Known about the structure:
Number of domains: 2
Number of helices: 14
Distance between the termini: 41 Å
Shape: globular
Strand content: 15-25%
Region (Disordered): 45-68
Amino acid sequence: MRLRAGDDLAAKFRRRFGCVGDCLPMAETEVHEFVVGDEIEEFFESSSVEEDTDESGQSERPSRLSRALSHKEIVTKELRRIGSLSAHALDPETVGVIWHAQIYENDFQDTKSCTPTGDLKPRRPVPHMREGEFFSSLIKTEDGNWMFPGELNGWPGLAMLKVFSITGKTRKLIGGGDIKRVWHAPAEGQSGQPPEYPKGKYSSVRVTLHAPLWSLTGWSEDSPGFVFWFAAQLDAGPKLSHGVKMLDMLRDSTQLASAGNVSECVRAHVFVHRYAKKVERPKDLLTYHAGVLLEWSHQRFTTVVELAWWNGLGGYNGKSNWYDDRDSGDTALFEAMPAGMKAPWRDDRAEIRVLDVPAKNAQEFESYLNKYTGVEARFLDPKIHCSGNIRLTHRSQPDIFRYLINYVSRDGRYNEKFRNCQTFAADFYGFLTGTKDSEPYHEVCRLFYKNRSYLFLYDS
């Protein structure tokens, strides 16, 4: 039976199964243990799931026809929600990525949040610290702001964050509790009052912090673009670069100049797979991850290109399915990552990964897929969905990198319905091969698909 967007059955299907383009950083069971198991306070989670509202207060539901949003525009929407809670709003021209952290009392103990020795578990999806460690580390800047200078909860990518607000929830025996903002940088902060843990019945508070403005465009100030390239097949050892610095790395390396810079992309393949699980639910049977495999004229290796959650690999110890060392502890990918990329993942924003793999062609790549296929392995039902020759005139490695930087810089969103791994693979494959009717692999993803290949062509 063919599903159409206007059918009642299709609408029920979308509500029941959601996304079929899965770009999770880990297996779903691990996500449940890692995130849900933390039992974050309900009001602390509300900011991450609250729907956007327009000026009239009406809900802005995601639409496949909505215009592209850069990372900066995404943060501007966040600021609109934060500003609605107070007369003091952050200036979008001074604020970077917004982060939240949970701060506990010094004597806090919990088996799900603490190690057997009583220390808070490091590098949690929602960073957490005890009050003494956090507030004693704050320093006052020349402009009167307060900054946390170290690594928040052990995340190297969460450093030099400015404190914006502290929000607490008091507990009541009946009827839940009251949410109160107890410290606010534009108010108490500017009047000289330092941030501190509030007195009263607060078992924990949520601190809102923000990174520098440049964090909206890249992982470092001098290299905009949320694309990273893991050059894993170099004779001298693997290297990783991100943003526009990828182009510099191409120019500066003699081996890359001979094997990549003058080499051209000659063929592209869309591959798909489900994630390995011992027991698959109905949704799991429809959930496919998709990427694009690139073949080069040098024929030394191929390259996997995929779109996924922002910081999805940096926040998960560099465990990539495309390398044999995924389960070996410290992976080569994680070792090569700069500190700024090691931060919690965000499921509303996207990054593009460019990963050189040992397979020299699609046949060898299929052999790799088969090697790790099975309920105890990594993949289920892997396949090469479609293949085609590259028809672009400008198709060198620097050209490909520039296209990818343009694409993610102009639209930094990730959305499980209309902007995911499958929609990117359809855009990228159609752009490279000139395939006008390129579509996502699964028919449910096609319901929400709008081709955005034009994003590859223009600077943000």
